[in-house]
Amino acid sequence: MPKRLKTPLSEEDARGLRAGETIYLDGVIYTGRDEVHIHALEHLEHGKKIPVDFNRATLFHCGPIMKKVDDKWFVVAAGPTTSSRMNSLEPQFIEQFRPGAIIGKGGMSQPTVDAMKKYGCVYLAITGGAAVLAAKGIKNVQGVEWYELGMPEAIWIMDAYNFGPLTVAIDAHGNSLYADVGVKIKANEPKARERLGLK
C-alpha cells in the first residue's frame, strides 16, 4: 500500500522511507532548477535571505508551463527536469538548506546520495513525459519568487494534493535504485557480450 505523506517532511519521515517504496504527497512543493540552486547558494554566501524556507521542504526539479488568468497562476504542465543537471550543486544545497525531499527524474550522483544520507533527504522519482498528469496533482499556486529568472527557472510555490505516484529512488540510508541497476547491468555484461559474440 503506497504511503501518503505531508510536506514538509520531518527527518523521521524521510528516514522512514526505503528505496523502492511508492508514495504520494500533500502540502507545499517548491520548484527549482539550476538557477534556483545557484541563486540560493549565492544569497547564502553574501549573507542575503532567500524568499522561501527550504528546510525539510520538497524541491521539485521542474520548469513548469504556467498560465495566468486575471491575477491567478495555474499549472498547465509540470514535467520533471533531468536531475543530473544539478549534480554539481545539489550536495552543497542539501548541506546548507536541508530539504526533506527532492523530486526529479534520472537519478543523481554519488556525492548527492552521500549528502542525502548524512542530512536525511530522499530522492523521489516521477515519471518523465507525464507533465500533464503531474499538473493534476497541483491544486493551487500560492505564488512565485525570482520570476525575473524566467518562468521555468523561478521558484513556484505550489499546493499539492495526492501528488504522485512517486518512487523512492534514493533513500536516506544511502540506497539507490540507480546504483542497483548499474550493478546488475555490469554483472550481466559478460554473458550479454558472449551471446553477441563479442570479446
CATH topology: fumarase
E-strand count: 9
Determine Rg (CA atoms, Å): 18 Å
**Sheet with the most strands?**
5 strands, mixed, barrel
CATH secondary-structure class: Alpha Beta
What's the total helix number? 6
Q: Beta-strand level of the residues, as a percent range?
A: 25-35%
User: Mean pLDDT score, rounded?
Assistant: 89
CATH superfamily: Fe-S hydro-lyase, tartrate dehydratase beta-type, catalytic domain
Helix content: 25-40%
CATH architecture: Alpha-Beta Barrel
Distance between the termini: 45 Å
Give an overview of the whole structure:
With 199 residues, this protein is α/β, with parallel strands linked by helices. The protein has a single domain (3-195), classed as Fe-S hydro-lyase, tartrate dehydratase beta-type, catalytic domain (fumarase, Alpha-Beta Barrel), CATH 3.20.130.10. It contains 6 helices and 9 strands, in the order βαβαβββαβαβαββα. The chain has helices at 11-15, 34-45, 90-97, 110-119, 131-136, 177-195; strands at residues 3-6, 22-31, 58-60, 65-69, 72-77, 101-104, 122-125, 138-145, 155-170. The strands form 2 sheets. A 5-stranded mixed β-barrel has the order 2-3-6-7-9. The chain has a two-stranded antiparallel ribbon with strand order 4-5. The longest helix is centred in the C-terminal third of the chain and has 19 residues, at 177-195. The radius of gyration is 18 Å and the shape is globular. 39% of the residues are buried.
